[in-house]
Amino acid sequence: MKKTYEVLSSLLERTMALQTALVLFEWDNETLAPEDASSYTNRVIGVLSEEYYRIITGDEMGKAIEACEKEEGLSDVEQAIVKGAREAREDLICVPSEEYRENAQLVADAVRVWTKAKKSEDFDSFAPTLEKVISFKKKFASYRKKDDQKLYDVMLNEHEKDFNSELLDEFFSQLKEGIVPLLKEIKENGKEIDNSFLVGGYPVEKQKEMAEFLAEYVGFDFHKGVLSESAHPFTTNLHNHDVRITTSYHDKMDSSMFSVIHEAGHGLYELGIRDDITQTPVGQGTSMGVHESQSRFFENIIGRKEAFWEPIYGKLVELYPDKLKKIPLEQFVEAINKVEPSFIRTEADELTYSLHIMIRYEIEKMIVEEDIDLEKLPELWADKYEEYLGVRPENPSEGILQDIHWSQGMFGYFPSYALGNAFGAQLYYHMQKEMDFDELLRTERIDVIRNYLKENVHQFGKMKTSREILKDVTGEDFNPEYFIRYLKEKYSKLYELS
Amino acid sequence: MKKTYEVLSSLLERTMALQTALVLFEWDNETLAPEDASSYTNRVIGVLSEEYYRIITGDEMGKAIEACEKEEGLSDVEQAIVKGAREAREDLICVPSEEYRENAQLVADAVRVWTKAKKSEDFDSFAPTLEKVISFKKKFASYRKKDDQKLYDVMLNEHEKDFNSELLDEFFSQLKEGIVPLLKEIKENGKEIDNSFLVGGYPVEKQKEMAEFLAEYVGFDFHKGVLSESAHPFTTNLHNHDVRITTSYHDKMDSSMFSVIHEAGHGLYELGIRDDITQTPVGQGTSMGVHESQSRFFENIIGRKEAFWEPIYGKLVELYPDKLKKIPLEQFVEAINKVEPSFIRTEADELTYSLHIMIRYEIEKMIVEEDIDLEKLPELWADKYEEYLGVRPENPSEGILQDIHWSQGMFGYFPSYALGNAFGAQLYYHMQKEMDFDELLRTERIDVIRNYLKENVHQFGKMKTSREILKDVTGEDFNPEYFIRYLKEKYSKLYELS
């Protein structure tokens, strides 16, 4: 007879294989699949995710998990895998199979509908689909919710286990108190940073060359990774030996540079997962917040530092001599850090970025907890942008349609971006005790930083939660003060505030 | 209770989804996947193909097929699907599940091993893997074989149902009798065709532009298709709304042009399958021979005609003015039809091509039926090339390692290439009674030819065998005389033979 753990292991192997196939279909859909394929391919995706559902919720799996939970002598890794399997099962066993399948197909369609709506700047054509996505999302959350848990908190916990909206309300109010006055000071101070030279005259072919260079420079391993193009940059992985990132190329050339460093940061996380847990239920980044902490660590904390660019700015000038040969390094670094309230989250500077997230957080809560009329969303969105950022989007494609997430049913996900900023800053202040970032960057020793993160964050996958990682690494629980301190120090210096 | 047919249909849907996923993994592996991913991804592929095996050989499937076979009132399409399911099941139910899985993983590895061996011109590093592949292939054939069927015929029937080696021996001897004297006449006749201008100075970027143009020109629909790059050009499809072709770019510029027309021919076949049978066991091209008849119809019978190039040669000259502005259309058409015995099958001219196939056919029979020592293969290969084509490959990469097929376990496949030539010629002579090819091509009405093939060949998928198609379309059984007549007429004119 097979050993107890082996029975579970071979069932999990089947679920992992199906999930990996689903990841590949999603990747293919976003990067390559022909336009007319979707309805046929979505059928396949529906069947595969039903197959996954069938195994994870099946009796065999239930018995195997229970047997392993009683088993003594399992290793720590095996115990973590059993726990991961239990959680994956509980997420789904409360959802009726028909609804599960319908939702999977709906989401696949919804991404297409969103893509078209965004292109044609037409929120109304997306609203009915969004409504269906929301309705499924709420229904599933109501199945999963425990006791008097809020529906929104259920959604949040899919991406970030140790948090709830009470904690987040407090977090965002701290951010608001820190950022809004700082933004005001910057505006009033009057220092103008010119970043107009970053726009126009940067051929896509050269941007591609730079994107590949940067990914490799921060340590993204092309023997285990791929860089492609898609409308909305993202990272995905089949396992820790196949991690894929995308970017998109625009007139403003720093856009693709920083999106590539960002996605490479996500990629490094997945590449850093240990071999003994990849292809298991704990073999992925532990939460979206920790994922963003890594991507934004590379993009912003490291990637926008002068010391990062010191050794490689010459290469950039060489690529675009007509544009950059008269721009000294210092001016370039100021430009890529310019604070400027704007419409598009992914293009936002590091300071106003969290305000973009706050707006989405407030709207998500209204959608989920207050049943707000979807027709009012574009207006509500514009109002909030005007209030917090002082800019009002004129069309939905630079407003509510800008992000793919809601079409994928990802509610409760956006807060992770802000949490990630805060996690990253907390890690950064701790790491400064052990290493001199400027010196390492100047001497092209990013590997030291990367290896520290691999050792202390990446390798564990889902075996630790975000707050466990913060405690183990920094010796203290989640503390957003570091992020606010980071912003104040950085922007006071850049904008020469008193 | 579900209707009998619906039970089968939903089981088949699951097998189709798994097969589609396997196709996508294979596509991804050949075109994009990072180098180090294979051993991890192959695990996934192994599990998915085992999952497929589990369903197709399971009791549920067996009962569903039997129930449908007894059911009255099924439509023709439904009956064909039931029959297809029965055949797919019988192919596998005789193979033990462990062996099935091992073989799937082995083949995935073997392609990687072959790729490296070819690159390093080292047959010895591939031989042990090839030996394993052959051993599985033979074992599976022995499980499948009926009565006193030859093992090689079992392999052949996987790709071409209505044929056996007796028929093929006769076919190849007819070809030999037709081609060898013709080749001799051409050599003795002394007419020299200069095709040296096709080599060198054709930038890859422009070759890509031409490849896309040609695919679209022959009717490959990019709303339902993709063109990518891979080491070895191939066609695959997820269903009839997602068909993918690849090419590779070389110094000799006609190489990518004709490989794209060839693969587009395969692609048109899969795009032409009816909507009501796609994603079912009969929703693919019926046999490799018929597939090759379509690809080589477009590549050679149409694609190398002067009338084909008349309307578009100007575009080619425009792309490469330095190379082609002094080359008149007639000279270009002679060059792309030049007969020249050579090492590489995929680069072979239309006349000597079938000799390349004959060599593989003879060697395959020795491997399968005579247990020949693999170490001797490179030598044997070289001897046969010297005998039939008068050229002797100096290294295995331009000899025995040139083709991917054997690494994939595709024995009994090569004959389809020669059969395809013959099927295509038989169709061509029949179609000439109904249409004027030169006139259609000159006036850019390829759609008439394409639609005829869609109507009479493509749409049926596996619902008719190759010989049934030939009978239904041309009114006679398979007859290789047409192909020999085609070659004689074409090359007598080109080389001005008496």
UniProtKB/TrEMBL annotation, chains A, B:
<protein>
    <recommendedName>
        <fullName>Metal-dependent carboxypeptidase</fullName>
        <ecNumber>3.4.17.19</ecNumber>
    </recommendedName>
</protein>
<comment type="similarity">
    <text>Belongs to the peptidase M32 family.</text>
</comment>
<dbReference type="Pfam" id="PF02074">
    <property type="entry name" value="Peptidase_M32"/>
</dbReference>
<dbReference type="GO" id="GO:0004180">
    <property type="term" value="F:carboxypeptidase activity"/>
</dbReference>
<dbReference type="InterPro" id="IPR001333">
    <property type="entry name" value="Peptidase_M32_Taq"/>
</dbReference>
<keyword id="KW-0645">Protease</keyword>
<comment type="function">
    <text>Broad specificity carboxypetidase that releases amino acids sequentially from the C-terminus, including neutral, aromatic, polar and basic residues.</text>
</comment>
<keyword id="KW-0482">Metalloprotease</keyword>
<keyword id="KW-0378">Hydrolase</keyword>
<keyword id="KW-0121">Carboxypeptidase</keyword>
<keyword id="KW-0479">Metal-binding</keyword>
